[in-house]
Write a structure and sequence with these properties.
Strand content: 5-15%
Structural class: alpha/beta
Largest sheet: 5 strands, mixed
Oligomer: single chain
Shape: globular
Length: 222
């Protein structure tokens, strides 16, 4: 967790029981007036739907973005089955607790279709084939031992991000760098307009440090 002025940032893993427990514990303890989430409206409604179904269209987001989204969803579902936690359970827990405690829910992420459309334009087939090759060869490679029930430590997260930045620059730019900037700007605006209110923001652990640093940078410039 990171704290800056009237906001506390919780870095989560979307398929870890540790994240679900941490989100529940902090929201009940802190009793924030505002809960900010790494979601957009489309993902919010899919997450909260009784029969969730994401209607992504190739015509809207491009073939490469569509394939990447489907592959990413499949991987998360596989990991979720292994851990017994459905992807996004920590976000759903936060939403339900916010409603229960009367906290305002604020969505800080970019529209998923915009992100995937950008990814379709930016990502190269070389990056995509490299990504697929890594997945196919992973059962035969030396594996880093990761407890999927917990949020990876900061050192491991940084190692993974640096690898993505080097091997998949387009993926890093669209999925990490640009979204960090968007989420940080939205959070800073939220903080500035609600200085008397306590805010809890829940974002993926891979975004935590950079978003926290960006908030401090924006504050220095004002």
């Amino acid at each position: 967790m990171r704290a800056f002025k009237n906001i506390k940032l919780i870095g989560t893993s979307h398929v870890a029981i540790q994240s679900v427990k941490e989100v529940e514990s902090i929201i009940l303890k802190e009793k924030p007036e505002i809960v900010a989430l790494e979601l957009d409206k489309k993902r919010f409604y899919v997450l909260m739907a009784k029969n969730p179904k994401r209607n992504l269209k190739i015509s809207s987001i491009g073939l490469k973005g569509y394939l990447f989204a489907k592959l990413g969803s499949w991987i998360q579902q596989k990991i979720g089955k292994a851990t017994g936690i459905l992807p996004g359970t920590e976000m759903k827990t936060a939403i339900n607790l916010a409603k229960k405690t009367g906290a305002y829910i604020y969505l800080i992420d970019q529209d998923i279709e915009i992100t995937l459309k950008k990814l379709s334009k930016e990502i190269t087939w070389k990056e995509k084939l490299t990504f697929l090759r890594e997945i196919l060869l992973s059962p035969f490679s030396k594996k880093i031992k990761i407890d999927l029930r917990k949020v990876p430590d900061t050192k491991l997260i940084d190692t993974i991000i640096q690898k993505v930045k080097k091997q998949y620059p387009s993926i890093y730019k669209v999925l990490i760098k640009e979204r960090n900037e968007i989420m940080a700007k939205n959070l800073y605006k939220l903080m500035s307009n609600n200085q008397d209110k306590k805010i809890i923001a829940i974002i993926g652990a891979g975004h935590l440090d950079e978003v926290n640093n960006l908030l401090k940078d924006y504050d220095k410039k004002t």
